[in-house]
């Protein structure tokens, strides 16, 4: 598509991308004075001590003391170079193992990504791990023999498994699968504003192609990843907005964000460097969609167990910030999907708008979706904040009560009511399987947890856990702007801090369990194969198809005709035995529904809900709304 072409990094720009060796000269230039460093460190301490919701959980799980480390950092400011200050502050936040809560470096780091021009991914062969090149830019790599499908065996002289594990320990993933996934990803791509600058100027790689061993040296290159940064001569520009998060709409939904900034930036950069974002097999049947490129993809796929729909959701953070348009487009696409089953694929989705994630679940289940609740840590600061910001007021009373009860956390309250996240109801009546990986984070963690907690269908993981990011995130600047007179002041020279403000608790069988660190364990595990990486996830989709084939597709289609005081419903059903009809919340009729079409008449009302049963099991539902005169 033309939009994709516009976002690709051209070969001419790639050739001009400066080397990391050249960029290092900028890092020696001092960007923050001692006074400005003190401001950043003091504000970081305020975030951790006053509003950071996971502080007690992180101290207990990882044996860390971020408050003391920040005090020591402030004491030693005069002894540290510019790079040492940034590195230590980054390490303090990385050790929290919370990708929401981080220090975003100022210029010259902001807007820069280091790349070696390829992506490596892990697969399994006979129970043994392998690391393959899944995407490559020959103009950046410079070695024509290093092609897609090459197996990496050594990295800077170390066996690749050892190199990935060492890199993973430097990352802030909340569980071992998440750390390993992020360590692997950052072997080849690093956003310098939120990840540490590579120690080496180049990487020495040993790899195998067709049984032949090769070695090559690849330099780290620097590309711009934020279109707010004005490129200088010699910079390669991948046009990406790396973090505009202010929604143009108003209300709670526009303000509740849960997103891993690192994953979102790298996701967009992958599109710029390696578009299209993934390589599918055998000319898949795409269903055209009306959303901006890179948000979602809909198609049909044929597996060993039948033909199913495949809906890939790359993000819940819409570039145009139109989460309602995003949901409306998914509703349209679901009507075009095969009825026998749907593979809902959220791998690599770093989150975004919580409302989009929570409202989406209703389309796939006849049950009333229970939104997940959120809670503050109880401090004097969160008590004041929940007074200052009107839409946080529901939490204020319980924070105040903590003075007497000593409770660590406030009451857990959903951001959205059941009516708000069930306003449309079930639209897709076939079975659904959710595919996750360890890069799923934040709002996507919330979606995966809700999918499992509301018993919508099985979760099929390609790794043993999701990223386990269980909170909404605020920028430090949000606290400054939304809390006039509060303890937070502006940061100097483009530096940014982000913090987990309210944590998520699960519902259903996992009720009360925090999502942070624990994540969502899949119901089924599929280890990616070489065929998955090189042939469009063929084995993964066969595994998903096998799960779908075990479940029963349903049909509950309704055409409504208002007739004065009555509504005539032409109902077409399959694999249902009876239908219960509710008007404005009250039961009015129960009828048997053999497969096929029949007419049901109910009293007129604003809200009609039909619940289809298979025996005594609620198996399908439809919700209809009417404007009353």
UniProtKB/TrEMBL annotation:
Protein name: Tail specific protease domain-containing protein
Domain of life: Bacteria
Endpoints of the signal sequence: none
Residue ranges of every copy of the Tail specific protease domain listed in the record: 308-479
Pfam family, one: Peptidase_S41
